[in-house]
Amino acid sequence: MHVARLSLTDYRNYERAELELGPGATVFVGRNGQGKTNLVEAIGYLSTLSSHRVSGDQALIRAGADAAIVRALLSHGDRELLVELQLNRQGANRAQLNRSPVKTRELPRYAHSVLFAPEDLAIVRGEPSVRRRMLDELLVQRTPRLSGVMADYERVLKQRNSLLKSARARGLSADKLPTLDIWDERLVELGSELIDQRLALVAELTDPLAAAYRSIVDADHAPGLRPLLSIDGADPDDERGEADSAAAPGARGDTRTRFVEALRGLRPKELERGVTLAGPHRDDVVLLLNGLPAKGYASHGESWSFALALRLASAELLRRDSTTGDPVLVLDDVFAELDRLRRERLALAIAGFEQVLVTAAVLEDVPVPLTARIVQIDAGTIVESGAPETGTAAEVGHE
């Protein structure tokens, strides 16, 4: 699959933008702050219904506008699909497929992309929520119905937390809360499915992660992933949990049984704190290099390579599953952080993807094999596009 045409209206700094794209590599070049990343962010949003830069929608709508519209014509072989998303300042967002209204959560079923950006360093060095989000976005792209399961889980969690907070405020004991058992059943039902889906995904990522890391670094640092489950006693608030939590998934029975036992054992503490202390919303995955947690031991370069390898492994899983071809691979301001050898190795590793979109402030940072087509961006305007002339690539990047 590739994006054949991208159209933006009142999105970020674009009042209006129309861009024809095709298979192969395209480089968006321009000084920082001109709007390069906004173009690829819009494509990523259609796939994940979230931005890699901000947590909400409002920043995506151009100042003074009531709504932003993203349209993408997706092409696979002789089939085309028009995907449209309207982000509203007031009211719910709206989506269309081939001009017919659909639920916004349906879009990831059709638009597949994997985006790597400098912000992804937080996957390695940041909080557990960043790693949970990475896994969940990939899960939804592979199995779109899980977005509904996640939304239902969040609603149940919110209701359960509200009940716990109310009980704490009123000084009620557990035996005075019969409705808590009802919420527990639903929490366990939905949460167990999410936990099992994440565990299966982590297992599937293991081999593609090792291959992707080796293709970039050309060294065997034994990258690995180890789940930390709150239903098995892991505490994301305890930094020692990254190294010390050793309970193996399935060690005391199936996920549902362990979840029920965890809630039973944690109930006094939950009533004291007014929050739910076990479930997929409290889980993490430890990223390992040479057997040690990358978060505490990896260098900047190793952390960067690990995060990039995770995204490439994600893209590999999506291309294996998809009936519509490769996901669109987006590299946002990546090459400036890599030395020449790793730039060349990365270019070689992604050469087989149907469409690769790259952003760069300086064109000379981008390996020549990826510069078949260049699009220049200046202050929210597409000012020039085409192929570089021999010997002028560096000068184009500095205009």
Account of the protein in words:
It is a single chain. The chain is α/β, with parallel strands linked by helices and 399 residues long. It has 2 domains: 1-112 and 322-399, P-loop containing nucleotide triphosphate hydrolases (Rossmann fold), CATH 3.40.50.300; 128-318, RecF/RecN/SMC, N-terminal domain (Glutathione S-transferase Yfyf (Class Pi), Chain A, domain 2), CATH 1.20.1050. The chain has 11 helices and 15 strands. Strands 2-1-4-5-6-7 form a 6-stranded antiparallel β-sheet, with helices on one face. It is globular, with a radius of gyration of 23 Å. Belongs to the RecF family.
CATH superfamily of the largest domain: RecF/RecN/SMC, N-terminal domain
Low-pLDDT ranges: 240-250, 390-399
β content, as a range?
Answer: 15-25%
Class per helix and strand makeup = alpha/beta
CATH top level assignment of the largest domain:
Mainly Alpha
Instruction: Count all strands and give the number.
Output: 15
Number of domains: 2
Helix content: 40-55%
Summed over residues and divided by their number, the pLDDT gives a mean of 89
The geometry reads as globular
Distance between the termini: 32 Å
Named CATH topology of the largest domain: Glutathione S-transferase Yfyf (Class Pi), Chain A, domain 2
As laid out across the biggest beta sheet, the strand order is 2-1-4-5-6-7
